[in-house]
Amino acid sequence: MSTHSIPSRIQLIDVGPRDGLQNEKQPVPAEVKIELVHRLQAAGLREVEVTSYVSPKWVPQMADNHAVMAGITRHSGVRYSVLTPNLKGFEAAVVDRPDEIVVFGAASEAFSQKNINCSIAESIERFAPVVQAALAAGIAVRGAMSCTVGCPYEGDIAPERVAYLAGLMKGIGVQRVDVADTIGVGTPLQVQRAIEAALQHYDLDHVSGHFHDTYGQALPNTLAALQLGVRNFQSSVAGLGGCPYAKGATGNVATEDLVFMLHGMGLDTGIDLDALVDTAAWISTQLGRVPQSHVARALLAKRAV
Ligand code: HMG
Ligand code: MG
Q: Which ligand 1 atom minimizes the distance to the CA of 252?
């Protein structure tokens, strides 16, 4: 396994309000999404992925994007990001003043077609004017790269496909990229190869790990990424989520599981684990279930004794 010195300060983006909730079948009220963002920032999160400006026919749960963005009381020092797949999405988003927009592409052709209804090459053509407009408006730009190790339609994805996509993203001005294991099938060495492919075009500070936990690999994959020197990660409080276009894939790694591991390794996240567990319990209650993450269950059980 490749190793590098592990960075001491780790920056997490909680993607729960967007990636976590986008796949919920029952409508989640905007007030609940707003309170979730408030609780996350109170727990110490400095980056929150709030919503997406996509077709409400494709993802009905995100149709309340304006209401959610308008309802948030912003904290200085917190970055609020939103997904924008095309100019229509960007034009809708810009009125809500996000700090960062996210264009989202895939290393797999089939997933690109299923998720955003176009080829990889066409997606880059759509993203280019979005990136240009965002940068001109002083809004930061991130690029999500889905299916960087495995695809629900194509199977294994070669690292060369990731390098190709990262190069295209760099070419249109995307400032940083997420190496996403959308369906959570990757194992540590595969994830390291995917990250190394992204590192052909971006430096370590501009590459983040976005690992879904379907097969229980997200923490080992995080450790593998840390060993390469990656210090930005995305996770979802209570492990919520899944992608509507990746059937069977479960949520992101739970933020509290990640924070427990990082703090246990002596790494700083700026996050209050107890407040985060309270948030995991609260949102799970709102969704009518018990918290699913290991750490929320363990700490809530310990508190109950
Ligand atoms: P399309 O059908 O090809 O778009 O969809 P179109 O331009 O032909 O327009 C069709 C209709 O959609 C029109 O409406 C447009 O106005 C409307 P109509 O005339 O039929 O009433 N439309 C829009 N409406 C609102 N906002 C927009 C927008 N654009 C067009 N921005 C499109 C293309 C991208 C819009 C569609 O495929 C879509 O919305 N896809 C959603 C994909 C999505 O949100 N997936 C989940 C997020 S990605 C993810 O979770 C992965 C990630 O977490 C990383 C990982 O884990 O891998 C990021
Ligand atoms: Mg995701």
A: 56
